[in-house]
Request: fold
Amino acid sequence: MLEIVMAGEGREQAQLAAMRARAAQTGAEIDQSVTEILRGVRERGLEAVREYSLRFDKAEPRELAREELEQAAGRIPAPLLAALRRSAEQIAHYQERLKEEIAFGVRWWDSPAGGQVGRTVRPLQRVGVYVPGGRAAYPSSVLMNVIPAKVAGVEEVVMVTPPTQHMSDAVLAAAWVAGVDRCIAVGGAQGVAALAYGAGFIPRVDKLVGPGNAFVAAAKRMVYGSLDIDMVAGPSEVLVIADETANPRYVAADLLSQAEHDPLASAVLLTTSLELARSVAGEIARQVEGLSRGEVIRASLRDFGCAIVCDSLEGCAQLADEIAPEHLEIVTREPETVLEHIHNAGAVFLGAYTPEPLGDYMAGPDHVLPTSGTARFFSPLSVDAFVKKTSVLRYERAELERVREEIVTLAQAEGLTAHANSIQVRFEEGAR
Reply:
């Protein structure tokens, strides 16, 4: 089930090309449909949102009262509610530590040329969180998207989720635990459009985070600029670097844990041990038989899973950097040594007892991570994503006078005489 590839033969590059091709690229038909929905909501507001919601979800959009979220929390099993609360505590603790590194408020520095410059750092005022319905209705994602915004000090967090007939009690309970300010039953591209432009009782937000299907992904990409977004997420992926000391049962289980997400999910092992690769492949064939999503796992591993045997751990790290995975597990004799060679990864899990699902649910760092190689330039969602920075400047007359000639020279060189005049007029005779 898990193909074993020897590095250096060229076959690993074909595997990497297949992985990159999974990136969330929507087709022309979806883009056209989403464009029409966005235009309809932009022009007709709530009327269009209702029309699309009835067409696609067979229900009108509505706002859920806080009491409905609390009632949902009362309906879920007590151990699940306790787990949500524990997870929320861990996430908040981690985000609070990150918040300590952010200098909120106004900071000033003396400029070498005179005057003072600085910046303000303040939370965003209103943030939207998209939560999918159906099979992808994960309460953990509610916590991971909402809590960093709340810790950052966002004034209002608005959650939207499709208005299905039987909305997930676990998702609604998670919204209650996380402290969502408003929960609105609306989904799809129309939900994204409503948050981007505002539609009746659905407010316009400054930023939209959270995953969704291809229509939601296309809508987020198209409304970017009207608001900020976290990222356009692609299929889930895990990369495991392991040496001969790794337990093949553990490695196999961790690869399976990501392959079960989606037929497009990717699970790849990089190892220096051909024997380990063979043992992991055998374990995967054995363990998959007892898993509920076996069919999804088999499709994922068939198309986007493999074990690549490299000559050295440095070679593994180099290949991992090229892949830039969402999740990277390092299960070697000295994982910290391998970590020194890693530059590109969404999250890194060190050692045999730090499996990826720990990060999904309980450790604290966010599980909203860059996918499809975008860890080369994107970072995990965190409290930092919910603040904005503004430059501030303050000069007195004497300080401006010391740099006025250079400003005028630069402005005139660019043909911007009004810019030059803005400086010169302050030093004309009698000007104060």
Notes: The chain has a mean pLDDT of 94.
